[in-house]
Amino acid sequence: MVTPLPLAPAVMGVEELIKSINDPINNFAWGWPTVLLISATGILLMLRLSFMPIRRLGYGFRLMLKPTTAKEDDAGDVSPFQALMTSLSATIGTGNIAGVAGAIFVGGPGAVFWMWVVAFFGIATKYAEAVLAVHYREVDPLGNHVGGPMYYIRNGLGPNWRWLGILFALFGMLAAFGIGNGVQSFEVASALVGTLGIPNFVTGVVLAVLVFLVIIGGVKRIAQVTSALVPFMAVAYVLACVIILLSQVSAVPGAFGSIFANAFTGQAAATGTLTQVILTGFQRGIFSNEAGLGSAPIAHAAAKTTEPVRQGTIAMLGTFIDTIVVCTMTALVILSTGAMDEKLSGSNLSIASFDAGIAGSGGVVTAGLILFALTTILGWSFYGEKCAEFLLGVKAITPFRLVWVAVVVIGCVAGDRGIVWGVADTLNGLMAIPNLIALVLLSGTVYKLTRDYAFSE
Fold first, then answer.
1. Where are the transmembrane segments (predicted)?
2. Comparing 396 with 72, which gets the higher pLDDT?
């Protein structure tokens, strides 16, 4: 008989201590204080820009699909489209499948309405983030274009605010290992062991090799891979949702009706309060599209462009595609198939919804989870790397990549260590605070750059 390790109780005691410290901070980072700050910042930016991000959505789509011009080749590392796909690779993930299902399970159908609301104003937030990222970006010693909240805090607000940029980079680097790596790796391993019986360690090794082969090539290779995978998986998933909805077409109006009917009541929420409906919708919406967290502008700073407004107009499409399109599709499938009656949550609810619509189609959800998680690992590797570079210099890049690959294996094997990922989740939420402070203080710069740009193309 194997004797339990004597350190096990001590380890459990440490975990309990960490949990007791982390839980109150997490309640702040993902509770009303930060959620209201993110929402208020989006509203401020949208009003100050006179709803330009909404009025220029069509313009943004035209820019996204437009071939790169010679002028745009003067600066940057990847095309504007590739920058968008890199940022989408990190946002279109388990939150679009399991997250939406969780929002409906906890907050009821009405939570989807509040996801839409926070995404509506989040479009302006994402626009401002990318505008500032390109405007204040730098070229590092390796010749790569680097930017994001830590750079527009330092270069836009001045040296006295550098400490705020350091805080963002520190939160971002540490959070990346959890929310962008360990959690995602475990999702892939869990899906494969459950469907194909592949051991977690085997999944970890294979996944680590794949991730290494991509991230070792830097942002250019990451952009190439995500530009191939993200459009494919997003279109395939949305198409699958449309097919399910067509098979349940008579129930779709009722699904929309339940979203609006429950948006202003707490009847379908787990706690029976309207507050829970709104908070759940806001939390899941923010977690899904990451508008305000400051992650996406790190990718957009690498875009080949000389016009910050152009990239900002492309960047804001990420929030629209992620929440308004993909999350809505998931929600409608769940609500129109009646799978909610089974009292399931997370990815299990999404899988059951697909199977209820068309028998055997739940495999689409499993495949989507695997691909979404893989691209999230790739996208967040770049975010974490750039945060590490800001803190420690370019010498930190190679060690960071090696540790990142190692965490892929660890996440697959030991990804159920909830306290570890709980801390990472907290750090992920705390990223928003330095970023939002900078967005508010630099909103005048965003307005001026937008006002001076000619939307004539």
1. 29-47, 160-179, 191-216, 228-247, 314-336, 356-382, 430-449
2. 396
Residue 76 Cα distances to 135, 145, 299, angstroms: 12, 6, 11
The H or E element containing residue 138 is: strand 138-139
Single pTM value for the model: 0.91
Worst-scoring range by mean pLDDT, 53-62, 91-100, 183-192, 342-351?
342-351
d(CA 313, CA 61): 8
| 453 occurs within a structural domain | no
Confidence of residue 67 (pLDDT cuts 50, 70, 90): low
Q: Could you tell me if residue 383 is inside a domain?
A: yes
Q: How confident is residue 8, by pLDDT bands cut at 50, 70 and 90?
A: low
The residue among 268, 326, 283, 264 whose CA lies nearest residue 115 is 283
Q: Helices (H), strands (E): how many in the chain?
A: 25, 2
- Please spell the DSSP secondary structure of 236-302, one letter per residue: HHHHHHHHHHHHTGGGHHHHHHHHHHHTT--TTSSSS-HHHHHHHHHHHHHHHH-TTTS-HHHHHTT
291/40 Cα distance (integer angstroms) = 12
Q: What CATH number corresponds to the domain at position 310? A: 1.20.1740.10
CA distance 25 to 169: 18
254 within 8 A of 345, measured Cβ to Cβ: no
What pLDDT does residue 271 have?
A: 73
CB atoms within 10 A of CB 40: 13
3-state helix, strand, coil in the chain (%, to 5): 80, 0, 20
Number of domains in the chain: 1
CA distance 160 to 140: 21
For 197: left if phi > 0, alpha if psi spans -120 to 50, otherwise beta; the answer is left
CA-to-CA distance for 235 and 214, rounded, in angstroms?
23
The single-letter code of the amino acid at 9 is: P
Of 55-64, 117-126, 270-279, 443-452, least confident by mean pLDDT is: 270-279
**What is the C-alpha to C-alpha distance for residues 122 and 318, in angstroms, rounded to an integer?**
10
Integer Rg of the chain from CA: 21
Task: Answer yes or no: is 21 within a domain.
Answer: no
User: Would 119 be classed as within a structural domain?
Assistant: yes
Q: How confident is the model at residue 128 (pLDDT cuts 50, 70, 90)?
A: very high
Q: Are 183 and 191 in contact (CB under 8 A)?
A: no
